[in-house]
């Protein structure tokens, strides 16, 4: 990706001087720099979406310089072209022209960045997906039951009639329930939780669930899920588990519904600090651009049941320091399990973390 950015930056600079020679001054001074800015923004969001920034070993300075290179080169080219164009005017007037053009571009850049950051968050945070094949496999099984809530949310239930407890699970940003159920079955996770019922519903636009994504729609879905469980399983205790992005939804639920036990796997304290681990720009007025504040550190203050936080020092997606910040927000200190080498995905797909979770739930 960095090589691609450098190549396009050089190409953009060559185009600037070519068009200047052809007397397309406005194209050089305004349009190409704005196109460079748009490409920079696109590159940033594409890289963050692929989570390459947190998985590579490049120092932060290298990443930032690489991502800013197109716009830096375009600005330099723009200033050089302005200087050449106005080289016959007095030096004081030349400074005014350069400053005026530069400030105008900075304003345009800020507007484009703000609009893009606000509107592209869903693209960066969520990975709506579906697996028709996995869904058909579950439908052919007599072990799992497909559930529809409010005629628009769909998911799956693994019901243990002999169990007095049901686990409600809010998953990560790339999980759909059909694939998750089959994965848990194939690696033996359902064997670990054989004494429990297990229930999970797809987020809006995931799987067969309908609706659009927003913080309010996610919280509304979560309320509908909990109302369904409370009404259909009145004799069962409810244990709630949230993983990754789902910990923000689970934390909201913990403040609004009665729970037996509460587990957070790879949690963050709030959306602002999570986003700032990728790009530290959400401070002051810019925090208003965050569409998904997901203020778990406010919700968990109301948790009264026994809680567990599972985290890993090797988690490069949600740094453990954010999990530690969340732990401090609990009024009733939660139990913790810390792994040394497990990745973000390992925490939910490996047997050992689930054994520790079930041991906690069994107590």
Structure overview:
This protein has helices spanning 2-21, 25-49, 52-55, 60-85, 91-119, 121-125, 132-139, 177-187, 189-192, 215-232, 246-256, 271-276, 296-299, 320-329, 346-349, 351-362; strands spanning 145-149, 153-158, 165-170, 197-201, 237-243, 261-265, 306-312, 335-339. The protein is of the alpha/beta class and 363 residues long. The protein has two domains: 2-119, no CATH class; 132-362, Rossmann fold (3-Layer(aba) Sandwich), CATH 3.40.50.1820. The chain has an eight-stranded mixed beta sheet, with helices on both faces. Helix 2 (25-49) packs antiparallel against helix 4. The longest helix has 29 residues, at 91-119. The protein is elongated.
Tally of discrete structural domains: 2
Q: How would you characterize the largest beta sheet?
A: 8 strands, mixed
Q: What is the straight-line distance between the termini?
A: 49 Å
> What is the beta-strand fraction?
5-15%
Chain-averaged pLDDT: 86
User: Assembly state here?
Assistant: single chain
- The total of helices stands at 16
Q: At CATH's second level, what is the architecture of the largest domain?
A: 3-Layer(aba) Sandwich
Rg, please?
Answer: 25 Å
Please give the share of residues in helix. Answer: 40-55%
CATH superfamily heading of the largest domain: Alpha/Beta hydrolase fold, catalytic domain
CATH topology of the largest domain: Rossmann fold
Query: Which structural class is indicated by helix and strand composition?
Result: alpha/beta
Low-confidence stretches: 52-60
- In total, the number of strands is 8
Please provide the ordered H/E string of secondary-structure elements: HHHHHHHEEEHHEHEHEHHEHEHH
> Strand order across the biggest sheet?
1-2-4-3-5-6-7-8
- The top level CATH class name of the largest domain: Alpha Beta
